[in-house]
Amino acid sequence: MGWMFDFLNSSIGKKIQMAITGVLLCLFLIIHLIGNLFLFAGPHAFNTYVETLSAVRPIVRSIELILTLIFLGHIFNGIRLIIANRQATSVKYAVNKARENSTIVSRTMGITGSVIFIFLAVHLSTIWYTFQLEHGGGKFFDIVMSNNIGFGNLIVTIFYMIAMFLLGFHLRHGFQSAFQTFGWNHTKYKSIIEVVAVFFWLILPVGFLMIPLYFGLLGGGN
Amino acid sequence: MKVTVKIWRQKDSRSKGSFQTYPVDNISEEMSFFEMLDMLNESLVKQGEKPVAFDHDCREGICGTCGMFINGRAHGPISGITTCQLHMRRFNDGDTIVVEPWRAKAFPVIQDLVVDRTSFDRIMLSGGYISINSGGAPDANAIPISKISADIAMDGASCIGCGACVATCKNSSAMLFVSAKVSQFAVLPQGQVERKERVQNMVTSMDEEGFGNCTNTYACEAECPKEISVAHIARMNREFLKANLSG
To answer: What pLDDT band is residue A221 in, cutting at 50, 70 and 90?
Structure first.
């Protein structure tokens, strides 16, 4: 098992952990967005969807546990990388024209990731937690639209929109970066990965962003 | 032309350095950047001051000795060249040019613009070699090698070890350098004997030297004077994964 520990702690091992957990989280986002789209079908459809999930709670709980481990792995490794990379760099350059050799999205993964983490903490402690307290009753749609923790609150709406915008930023670099880490940088596959990446960094975050935009700002659902 | 150079001066590795500003006059546009520095040094010597120390050797872009951060870019504002290939015509009359040494924990400053890059040598010692039969010289074409493999190996071998990849990387990662060296041997039949140990030893050595972790910003590829592709980094990731997971 010693080799496994060495492998996971090596610079490339840490990158691979980041990439695997990142791609798995991307897959989770697809499932989450499909669920969220029931909001557009009205209160009845959304409430029925959440109640169906509540009916298979043991399965949902096991998935949530796995998801938590993936999230923690991604966050823990990210923090570890940031600290190690700070230690590897000595004095900062007085003049550094980084924008001439790299994209802003690739240089700000720690910042966008941190904002998404804050979003995650807020989202779990408000919407997710309140959902857990409800047992049937069909109030789930109303919770999402409520004036304190939901899209009835303008601050919540704007915060959700900023977070989803930055999620797009994070995935703009993160998704294709994962495949570079797996070693799939080849002229044959590069264009395929770039096309698939558009789904993850553009379509998916826009899909999530539509919800606070429609229900919070444009007054949809009333 | 006349320029003002703002140069990092540092007495030795233990001293704390600072920027010094010097005006340099009567520069011709045909001069190389180093000839301008030579002029500055001559005037400093005449004034009884210590000349600016900087690394240089071949002055034709093939040795990898020179390297400095000029106006925020490794090897200056022009892509695909080393500092010695940079000419003063790339600057404007009256410009202020900021010159800094490579900045990375694994490249400590020795003096002024000179940094210690022996960490690269130690990475090479850990695996940048092949085993060959001793004895008479073998027939040059005895081992068939495809054109594609030969080209990839040549691209990797074109690395001159200047350290611009590390210097420009926000994480001070040496992945482009190490991957170019791993690649050049991995794609050739001569490199197969040590293939697995090589990538493992060189990555371990890289980590031990205190280089950072790659986050795929690809700044290294953009600043490499030999324009080495990050596809080599992907190959090294593959090689490392295969070497670790296979028995």
So the answer is: low
Which tokens sit at A202? 């553009």
How many CA atoms lie within 13 Å of A132's alpha carbon, on the beta-carbon side?
Answer: 9
- In contact, B123 and B209? CB cutoff 8 Å: yes
Domain with residues B117-245, CATH architecture = Orthogonal Bundle (1.10)
- Structural element, H or E, at residue A78: helix A57-88
Residue corresponding to tokens 């000419």: B87
Could you give the C-alpha distances from A198 to A24, A35, B44, B66, B95, in angstroms and in order?
A: 17, 21, 56, 41, 42
Instruction: Kindly report the CATH number that applies to the domain delimited by B3-111.
Output: 3.10.20.30
Could you report the per-residue pLDDT of A100-123, keeping only the tens digit for each?
999 999 999 999 999 999 999 999
Whole-prediction pTM value? 0.94
| CATH 3.10.20.30 residue window(s) in chain B | 3-111
Tell which of A89, A103, A177 to mutate to test the B interface (max B CBs under 10 Å).
A89
> Mean pLDDT across chain A, nearest whole number?
94
At residue B247, the pLDDT reads 65
Give me the amino acid identity at B238: R
- In angstroms, the CA A21 to CA A113 distance is 13
Pick the residue from chain A with its C-alpha nearest to B71. A95
Q: What is this model's ipTM?
A: 0.92
DSSP A139-169: -HHHHHH-TTTSTTSHHHHHHHHHHHHHHHH
- Angle at which helices A11-36 and A2-9 cross, to 10°: 80
Q: Give φ, ψ of A79 to 5 degrees.
A: -65, -40
CA distance B230 to chain A (A): 8
Q: Do the chains contact at A93 and B69, CB–CB below 8 Å?
A: yes
Give the CA count within 13 Å in the CB-facing half-sphere of B125.
Answer: 6
Residue range B179-188: mean pLDDT, rounded: 97
Domain with CATH 1.10.1060.10 in chain B: 117-245
Dump pLDDT digits (tens) for A126-183. 999 999 988 777 899 999 999 999 999 999 999 999 999 999 999 999 999 999 999 9
Contacts 24+ apart (CB under 8 A), B13-22: B13/B108, B13/B109, B13/B110, B13/B111, B13/B116, B17/B109, B17/B112, B19/A94, B19/B98
Q: Of B80, B76, B61, B70, which is closest to residue B7 (Cα–Cα)?
A: B70
**Interchain pair A11, B230: CB under 8 A:** no
